[in-house]
Write a structure and sequence with these properties.
Layout (H helix, E strand, L loop, with lengths): L11 H20 L7 H9 L22 H14 L1 H20 L2 H12 L4 E4 L9 E3 L4 E5 L1 E5 L7 E6 L8 E6 L6 E2 L14 E4 L4 E3 L3 E2 L10 H4 L1 H26 L5 H30 L4 H30 L9 H12 L5 H14 L17
Parallel strand pairs: 1-5
Antiparallel strand pairs: 2-3, 3-9, 4-8, 5-6, 6-10, 7-8
Bound molecules: flavin-adenine dinucleotide (FAD).
Length: 385
């Protein structure tokens, strides 16, 4: 389950992610504390070109995440997540923001914001907000005023370009805007006393009193939720989770080898079950990346596929956690054991929005679809016949 060495023809972004991952894995233990943040790893992402890599090729970037770069993006997210799930979460938000800028930005916004990414700004996407007191955008002239908060905002206090959703007073459909923030201001991490993902700086941020220029607004009302990109984007967090599952499996395998307990048939059987779960997750992520990038299926079919993929990866993660903890036993719950933090981080990061709805929504699409069940997800031309 360890990474093979880099092959000479490996894309530069994947090679860079391997290097970032190794550094992140070394530092993750020290960052695992309330208020922790992987600042050196983010600096590595910048130095090795990964903050700029999602910029489209025709605008001077590496096009990581464009159709032909989808498998490379999957590999990068997996590798970064394997090094540190907190870093993987932050990087996934950065990639998501740049993809939204590429999709909805005007030429001038794209130029400006891609230049910011190249200059080392960390982006985040902050949609989650409290049921009362969410983000409101007021004003109609060249300067707009913000009030309200975002919650569960990863990188709060560290992200310097926040892509947020905000509502105009009395309107239900949110707008997207990119808000420049000063590092170290407005963030409140006091409520992030989490079981895992402590180093993700997932907190509240109060925007009240901030003003932005009107050209901070990206796209039109509800573009943020436009399908298949909104739900389809879940494949990216599944790719990061896959890296976290690999890290748990690696710690588990290392424990069995190191303690000489691996030859026991029960231990072998559990490891085999874990390998099936892990490989299943890998295949789901790779195919979900393909299905989203190819856009060959109807939007609702793409969404259904990605919903199944994210739940399959969640299931694989829960299975590997349980198998690893059973195999290693109490040692794996002691702080100095690598499995301890890796398990907490994975268990926390597996929590993603509305899993029940993802499952039943996918099932409803399967029920309503007119293709035979075996052809539902086929993207080759014969599926149309
Ligand atoms: C480490 C971490 C970092 C994050 N960073 C960000 C970020 O940067 N930006 C951001 O916007 N968000 C972020 N989030 C928040 C994230 O997007 C989700 O809001 C969060 O993960 C939802 O998890 P949940 O378990 O509370 O989901 P829920 O959707 O509340 O699910 C919990 C359970 O309730 C069920 N359920 C859901 N809705 C209903 C309902 N209406 N009625 C009955 N049952 C229901 C679900 O199926 C599930 O069983 C982050 C989350 C984590 C864990």
């Amino acid at each position: 389950m360890s990474e093979p060495g880099p092959s000479p023809d490996e894309p530069a972004a994947v090679r860079a992610a391997r290097s970032v991952s190794a550094g992140a894995a070394r530092r993750a233990g020290a960052q695992d504390r309330d208020g922790g943040f992987p600042a050196e790893d983010v600096a590595d992402l910048a130095a090795l070109g990964l903050l700029a890599a999602p910029v489209p090729c025709d605008e001077g970037g590496a096009g990581l995440g464009e159709e032909k770069g989808a498998q490379d993006l999957a590999a990068v997210l997996r590798l970064v997540g394997a090094g540190s799930l907190a870093l993987g979460r932050l990087y996934e938000g950065h990639v998501n923001a740049l993809q939204l800028v590429a999709r909805y930005g005007t030429p001038a916004q794209r130029r400006r914001l891609f230049a910011d990414a190249r200059a080392g700004h960390l982006f985040g996407v902050w949609n989650t907000e409290p049921s009362e007191g969410g983000l409101v955008l007021a004003g109609t002239g060249p300067i707009l005023a913000l009030s309200g908060e975002k919650t569960f905002a990863s990188g709060a206090g560290f992200v310097t370009r926040a892509l947020v959703t905000a509502r105009r007073p009395g309107e239900a459909a949110p707008l997207m805007l990119v808000v420049p923030l000063e590092a170290g201001t407005r963030a409140d991490l006091s409520a992030w006393r989490a079981h895992g993902m402590r180093a993700s700086a997932t907190g509240r941020l109060d925007f009240t009193g901030l003003t932005v220029m009107a050209d901070a607004v990206l796209g039109g009302p509800d573009d943020y939720h436009r399908q298949p990109h909104f739900s389809g984007g879940a494949w990216r967090f599944a790719a990061v989770q896959l890296g976290g599952i690999e890290a748990v499996a690696e710690a588990w395998r290392g424990h069995l080898a190191g303690t000489g307990r691996g030859a026991d048939p029960h231990q072998l059987a559990r490891l085999g079950e874990g390998a099936i779960a892990l490989e299943g997750a890998r295949l789901w992520v790779a195919q979900a990346a393909r299905v989203v990038a190819g856009e060959a299926l109807p939007p609702e079919r793409i969404v259904a596929y990605v919903n199944l993929a994210r739940l399959a990866v969640e299931r694989a993660g829960l299975d590997v956690l349980q198998l690893a903890q059973r195999s290693v036993g109490l040692q794996g719950f002691l702080r100095e054991h690598p499995l301890e933090r890796l398990s907490r981080d994975l268990a926390t990061y597996l929590r993603q929005p509305a899993p029940d709805r993802a499952l039943t929504g996918a099932a409803a699409e399967i029920l309503a679809a007119d293709a035979t069940i075996g052809d539902l997800w086929r993207t080759e031309p014969e599926a149309a016949r």
